């Protein structure tokens, strides 16, 4: 019976697939390569209505596009042609952009050309479910492609962007493909899903006017569904939102001389300084405008990261600056006097240039030689601009930037709103519980509202069908980070329910829970020949009942967590881990001698976006998966597990996994390869399992999977969907 239930669940996930005339598992690498797309062909179902909507947008004298026409959605069928086959998707499209440059009439083609927002109902294109097809000149054409590659290579979050041949209702041309800012954008930038925000343009493009309310426009959460996942994600979203709101209010208080400066972490946090400096050197300050700014809140760091969007970059040289008249706007007052751009030496390396050329050549829709020439012509301009700006900061006298956040006056903001003539309510306090929220208005009156209403408040500036914003000054985002000894490096955060000791002589770390929900997070640790021992407690009945989300209120899923860390011949031991993951490793790399996990409440070992090699893993008893990895490269020499509640080994989300020898007993599914993953195992011995192996697509943003086992000893079922492949035996 259980076997039938698992098979039904797998079949149910097929709805995520597109209609392709090939197996996606046989072309995993190509399906993540922009240059493999030969054509995107779009046929709008009701083309006459689509065309009339375009004519209405063109017929107005307004420099902006009316929201009424922009919001209209049209069903369409999209066919993507690859060199090895084609896929067809059902989708909806609508007009993209705020200004009229996103729609034009081509007399040469006798047709309307317009930028589009696209949402696929099934399947994906390069892992994107939502994306934009942009008229190239709206983003300065290939400058946008090169800019996103440079920023991504420097470690900033930037959308996948490339030039592609497009045919819309028979009208052919080239457009820029750019993924939208959502979960898939975070995954492609190796970030775990979390709250995302942007400058709120509600007033800027509404009936009130254009760019006339920048002194009262704040921010909005762009993925309110993440808020609605549970109480913990709601708390994280609200706290991050309030902090970003305060940063925007600070900017408005200093707007006369600090137009582009937004520092939502703390004054002069390096990542925002470097992002600001990079965009100035790219002549992409359009992306620094308050209403174009986008943000991701990284729960591991308890800080924001900038997300690149719409910089309108131009690779033109900034001249040597002889006087203050030629200095880029707010440069001198936006950086500390001792600021040094951290990437100068790396930019000058030949390895950096070659990497940029390689990535640009598969995204430019040009020949390899022409692509190389474009990069070699423009990349040195960016580097020159970096040097000029740095020299300016080093040599010219300038005022120190403001440092006092305490001067922020919320009453000034209320007064500005009143003087603007905008009718707007203000929520000045909010408290969350599992079922609803208690909000307090400016008048001191409190009321209960649903979480759906709160999500609408922070994403649409609307509450009970009236305009409203949250400006709660009660911000609780203080970090728990402490520095680790120099022999380890990095820092750690821990809940108060953890005891923690380090023996430097023995190179061992002992972590014990005082309560069953205690946790510890190591950040930027260098663990060379260290052994870490974690011991948990049996959970309280109450803590199990109230844990409605996989993550805790700090966004962590593990009891023992590692982020952006390096391992070398490290040992990990965990017993009685009562979190969703006994051990969780994210954005890390290295090798382990031994990992041993006993009695895990849910997943025993979980890793994301990492490159990890393990000599020996032993896992005994896990409530869910014994070994679960995604988005990285993983290798195990020897793996032994017993009594896994769901899967022995689970590999997903475009991972590469290899193992020499595995032994799995007493589990539902022995080995699972999902979502563009490739699993290769030399010898697999499985006993007392319902399903020996499965290979399938589970999530829409991926495709089929590959599974290759040289020697398999197992008595049980198997499942391979139509998009996946499995080869068993020599």
Offer a few descriptive terms.
alpha/beta, 730 residues, single chain
- Sketch the major β-sheet: 20 strands, mixed
Q: Briefly note the CATH topology name of the domain at 488-728.
A: Pectate Lyase C-like
CATH architecture of the domain at 488-728: 3 Solenoid
Strand percent estimate: 35-45%
- Residue stretches low in confidence (pLDDT < 50, at least 5 long) are 1-15, 541-547
Determine the structural class based on helices, strands and strand pairing.
Answer: alpha/beta
| CATH top level class name of the domain at 488-728 | Mainly Beta
How many DSSP-defined strands? 39
Approximately how much helix is present in the residues? 10-25%
**Helix segment count?**
15
Anisotropy-based shape: globular
Distance between the termini: 32 Å
Which radius of gyration do the C-alpha atoms yield?
27 Å
- Rounded mean pLDDT is 86
SSE inventory with pairings:
Blueprint: H1 2-12, E1 19-20, E2 37-44, H2 47-59, H3 67-70, E3 74-82, E4 85-95, E5 103-106, E6 111-114, E7 116-120, E8 130-134, H4 142-153, E9 161-168, E10 171-179, H5 183-188, E11 196-199, E12 219-221, H6 224-227, H7 231-253, H8 270-281, E13 294-298, E14 303-307, H9 331-334, H10 344-347, H11 350-361, H12 368-395, H13 410-420, E15 425-432, E16 437-441, E17 446-449, H14 451-460, E18 462-463, E19 466-470, E20 482-483, E21 491-494, E22 498-503, E23 508-513, E24 520-523, E25 526-528, E26 531-535, H15 541-546, E27 558-563, E28 566-575, E29 581-586, E30 589-600, E31 603-608, E32 611-622, E33 627-630, E34 633-652, E35 656-674, E36 678-696, E37 706-713, E38 717-720, E39 725-728
Parallel strand pairs: 2-9, 15-19, 23-26, 24-27, 25-28, 26-28, 27-29, 28-30, 29-31, 30-32, 31-33, 32-34, 33-34, 34-35, 35-36, 36-37, 36-38, 37-39
Antiparallel strand pairs: 1-4, 2-3, 3-4, 4-7, 5-6, 7-8, 8-10, 9-10, 11-12, 11-13, 13-14, 15-16, 16-17, 18-19, 20-21, 21-24, 22-23
């Amino acid at each position: 019976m259980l076997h039938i239930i698992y098979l039904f669940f797998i079949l149910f996930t097929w709805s995520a697939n597109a209609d392709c005339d090939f197996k996606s598992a046989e072309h995993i690498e190509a399906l993540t390569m922009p240059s493999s797309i030969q054509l995107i062909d779009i046929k709008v179902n009701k083309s006459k209505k689509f065309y009339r909507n375009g004519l209405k947008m063109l017929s107005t004298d307004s420099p902006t596009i009316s929201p009424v026409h922009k919001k209209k959605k049209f069903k369409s069928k999209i066919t993507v042609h690859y060199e090895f086959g084609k896929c067809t998707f059902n989708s909806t499209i609508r007009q993209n952009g705020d200004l009229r440059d996103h729609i034009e009439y081509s007399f040469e083609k006798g047709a309307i050309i317009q930028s589009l927002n696209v949402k696929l109902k099934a399947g994906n294109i390069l892992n994107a479910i939502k994306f934009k097809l942009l008229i190239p000149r709206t983003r300065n054409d290939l400058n946008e492609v090169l800019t996103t590659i440079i920023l991504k290579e420097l470690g900033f979050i930037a959308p996948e962007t490339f030039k592609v041949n497009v045919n819309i209702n028979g009208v052919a041309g080239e457009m820029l493909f750019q993924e939208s800012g959502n979960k898939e954008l975070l995954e492609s930038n190796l970030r775990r899903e979390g709250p995302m925000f942007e400058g709120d343009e509600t007033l800027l493009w509404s009936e009130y006017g254009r760019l006339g309310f920048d002194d009262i426009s704040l921010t909005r959460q762009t993925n309110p569904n993440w808020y609605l996942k549970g109480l913990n994600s709601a708390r994280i979203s609200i706290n991050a939102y309030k902090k970003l709101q305060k940063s925007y209010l600070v900017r408005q208080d200093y707007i006369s001389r600090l137009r582009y400066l937004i520092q939502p972490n703390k004054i002069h946090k390096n990542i925002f300084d470097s992002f600001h400096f990079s965009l100035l050197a790219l002549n992409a300050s359009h992306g620094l405008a308050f209403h174009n700014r986008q943000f991701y809140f990284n729960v591991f760091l308890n800080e924001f990261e900038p997300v690149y969007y719409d910089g309108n970059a131009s690779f033109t040289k900034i001249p040597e600056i002889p006087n203050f008249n030629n200095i880029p706007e707010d440069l001198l007052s936006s950086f500390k006097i001792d600021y040094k751009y951290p990437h100068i030496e790396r930019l000058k390396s030949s390895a950096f240039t070659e990497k940029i050329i390689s990535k640009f050549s598969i995204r430019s829709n040009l020949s390899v030689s022409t692509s190389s020439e474009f990069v070699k012509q423009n990349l040195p301009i960016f580097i020159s601009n970096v040097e000029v700006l740095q020299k300016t900061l080093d040599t010219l006298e300038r005022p120190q930037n403001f440092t006092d956040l305490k001067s922020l006056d919320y009453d000034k903001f209320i007064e500005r709103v009143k003087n603007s003539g905008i009718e707007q309510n203000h929520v000045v306090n909010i408290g969350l519980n599992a079922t609803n929220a208690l909000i307090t208005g400016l008048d001191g009156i409190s009321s209960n509202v649903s979480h759906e209403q709160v999500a609408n408040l922070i994403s649409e500036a609307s509450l009970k069908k009236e305009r409203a914003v949250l400006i709660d000054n009660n911000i609780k985002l203080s970090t728990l980070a402490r520095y680790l000894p120099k022999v380890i490096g990095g820092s750690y955060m821990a809940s108060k329910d953890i005891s923690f000791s380090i023996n430097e002589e023995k190179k061992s770390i002992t972590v014990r829970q005082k309560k069953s929900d205690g946790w510890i997070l190591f950040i930027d640790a260098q663990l060379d020949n260290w052994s870490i021992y974690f011991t948990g407690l049996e959970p309280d009945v109450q803590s199990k009942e109230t844990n409605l989300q996989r993550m805790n209120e700090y966004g962590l899923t593990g009891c023992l967590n590692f982020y952006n860390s390096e391992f070398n011949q490290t040992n990990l031991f965990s017993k009685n881990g009562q979190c969703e993951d006994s051990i969780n490793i994210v954005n890390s790399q290295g090798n382990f001698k031994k990992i041993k996990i006993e009695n895990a409440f849910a997943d025993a070992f979980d890793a994301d976006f990492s490159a990890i090699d393990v000599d020996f893993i032993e896992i005994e008893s896990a409530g869910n998966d014994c070994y679960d990895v995604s988005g990285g490269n993983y290798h195990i020499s020897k793996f032994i597990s017993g009594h896994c509640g769901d899967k022995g080994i689970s590999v997903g989300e475009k991972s590469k996994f290899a193992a020499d020898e595995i032994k799995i007993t007493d589990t539902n599914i022995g080995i699972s390869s999902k979502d563009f993953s490739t699993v290769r195992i030399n010898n697999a011995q499985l006993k007392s399992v319902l399903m020996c192996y499965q290979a399938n697509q589970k999530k829409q943003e991926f495709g089929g999977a590959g599974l290759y086992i040289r020697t398999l000893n197992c008595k049980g079922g198997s499942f391979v969907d139509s998009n996946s492949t499995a080869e068993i035996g020599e």
